[in-house]
Write a structure and sequence with these properties.
There is one protein chain. By secondary structure, the chain is of the alpha+beta class. It has a single domain, classed as Orthogonal Bundle (Cytochrome p450), CATH 1.10.630. Helix content is about 55%, strand content about 10%. The strands form four sheets. A five-stranded mixed beta sheet has the order 1-2-8-5-3. It has a three-stranded antiparallel beta sheet with strand order 4-12-9. It has a two-stranded antiparallel ribbon with strand order 6-7. The longest helix is centred in the middle third of the chain and has 32 residues. The radius of gyration is 24 Å and the shape is globular.
């Protein structure tokens, strides 16, 4: 027995020694001239030796690796080696190549990003095409036009809350209002019934769940296999013992599962309980018994979660950023109000999405908000195709991870002069072929671009139009959000959101 124990210890020691030797040899190779990426500049040998360097800056230090890379680009040019097998590119000339069908998604990133749910975000290319063919049209321009009256209902409810709360000079904590508002809008379209967050004292379980997940985004991505194990444990146990971020995930899964089961078990009854005239996402996905979604209900659960999180995390922060910039730039706010007053002399009841999208200054304002504060700021990775490829005159070896970031692209001074200043006027004379338009990518690019881009744009145009036509806003004296640009990369922007504004109701 003792001999067996000694042999077991010796075997473990040998295995450990072999593994340490392998890791050291791999470090040496990654740093050697023999590595395929050795020719690319990098200021950090640690970044080239181990991917745990990225883990340190993103998970431990809290999402700041993007800003480290920003400094590297300033020193070393548009292509920088940022990992053992990864390049970051900051040149708009390569955008449409890197995010084409030729470059495949980087599975480890997407599998971690989607967490323990089965969403089209992490699906292989063939499955992604099948799911997007069904899911994508639900967020087309034509379908989003059918949602305009529904959006108007929630926008009016939001505006009335702003007016009521802001009476007598009280500050309006507009950040939470926007979180609840965006949750109500998307839940009504997804499930046929709103979660009524604006009605329940701004108590938003889905919104809180999304925020909890977001705070630990990099930990969830890096340790996604462990996160997936929680899907096998009963929900009640997970909620008792898991960290707050994982409870947030299970809350979202629970909500989406509950709604999916309703439409799967008795679609007629589920449909009768809705209060809408427009199509409902879950009803369309599950209404046909021969649909791939009907055969795989987990697809509907996963895509419901991702659609909800995506809508809340794109529109909400953009609304916050827009109000902030309008408050600190009174001239911008005045121009918006004047344009909207001329366009809608009868007040907010005349506002339509189509008309809003024809207003030059409002469109320029929204583009500048999305340039300065893109909702999806992280580096989106792709993998170089078999046989490698050439970008310009630079050869990228097969299997190399190539990433780009909207934040870095939107702050290139040679494309956007004074990139850290908020200047809506820069968009008034642009055309689709202008450098500013070619580099603009707030929702990423390519075949995996945000599916809800038209949903987001309609919501943004109508909400900003309502608010700037009806209210005059400024930062409240007790406001603590001093700089909207104080944020970190938690896949989407993550920063202080407690924006307190004073409002003057121009309509009432």
């Amino acid at each position: 027995m003792q001999l067996t124990s000694i042999l077991s210890v010796a075997l473990c020691a040998r295995f450990l020694a072999c593994y340490i030797g392998f890791v050291i040899c791999r470090w040496i190779y990654r740093l050697s001239p023999l590595h395929p990426l050795a020719k690319f500049p990098t200021p950090s040998r640690l970044a080239c030796a181990s991917q745990w360097y990225q883990f340190y800056w993103n998970a431990v230090r809290g999402g700041v690796y993007l800003f480290v890379i920003e400094k590297w680009h300033e020193e070393l040019g548009p292509i920088v080696r940022v990992g053992p097998n990864e390049l970051n590119i900051n040149d708009p000339a390569f955008l449409n190549v890197v995010y084409s069908h030729k470059f495949e998604r980087y599975g480890a990133f997407y599998n971690g990003l989607k967490g323990p749910v089965d969403s089209f975000m992490g699906a292989p290319a063939a499955e992604h095409r099948v799911r997007k063919r069904i899911f994508g049209p639900l967020f087309s321009v034509a379908n989003i036009q059918n949602l305009e009256e529904s959006m108007r209902y929630f926008i009016e409810k939001l505006a009335n809350l702003v007016s009521t709360t802001g009476k007598n000079g009280q500050g309006v904590e507009i950040s939470r209002l926007f979180g609840c508002f965006t949750t109500d809008v998307v839940s009504e379209y997804m499930f046929g019934r709103s979660f009524d967050c604006l009605e329940t004292n701004l108590d938003s379980r889905p919104y809180e769940s999304i925020m909890a997940c977001k705070s630990f985004a990099w930990w969830i991505i890096w340790f996604s296999p462990i996160v997936h194990l929680f899907d096998l444990i009963p929900y009640r146990i997970v909620k008792t013992v898991a960290p707050k971020a994982l409870v947030g995930i299970t809350d979202l899964i629970d909500l989406s599962t509950e709604k999916t089961v309703e439409f799967t078990r008795d679609p007629v009854k589920a449909r009768s309980m809705t209060k809408t005239d427009h199509p409902i996402v879950l009803d369309v996905l599950l209404g046909d018994p021969n649909s791939p979604y009907s055969r795989n209900p987990k697809w509907a659960i996963g895509d419901g979660i991702i659609a909800m999180a995506g809508a809340v995390e794109t529109v909400g922060p953009t609304l916050i950023a827009g109000i902030y910039h309008a408050c600190v730039n009174p001239l911008v706010q005045r121009k918006l109000h004047e344009e909207l007053t001329l366009a809608f002399p009868g007040g907010t009841k005349m506002i339509t999405a189509a008309e809003c999208e024809r207003l030059p200054y409002l469109v320029a304002f929204i583009k500048e908000v999305l340039r300065k504060s893109p909702p999806l700021i992280t580096r989106i990775p792709r993998v170089a195709p078999k046989g490698g490829t050439t970008l310009g005159d630079v050869y990228i070896p097969e299997g190399t991870i190539v990433s780009m970031s909207s934040y870095l692209m939107h702050h290139k001074p040679e494309i956007y002069p004074k990139p850290h200043d908020f200047i809506p006027e820069r968009w008034l004379a642009t055309t689709p072929s202008s450098p500013e338009e070619k580099a603009w990518m707030p929702y990423s690019r390519g075949n995996r671009i945000c599916a809800g881009i038209h949903f987001a744009h309609t919501e943004l145009h109508m909400t900003f139009a309502f608010l700037f036509l009806r209210f005059k806003m400024k930062l409240h004296p007790e406001n603590k959000l001093e700089d909207i640009n104080a944020f970190v990369d938690m896949i989407s922007r993550h920063g202080q959101r407690h924006l307190l504004v004073s409002v003057e109701d121009m309509e009432n």
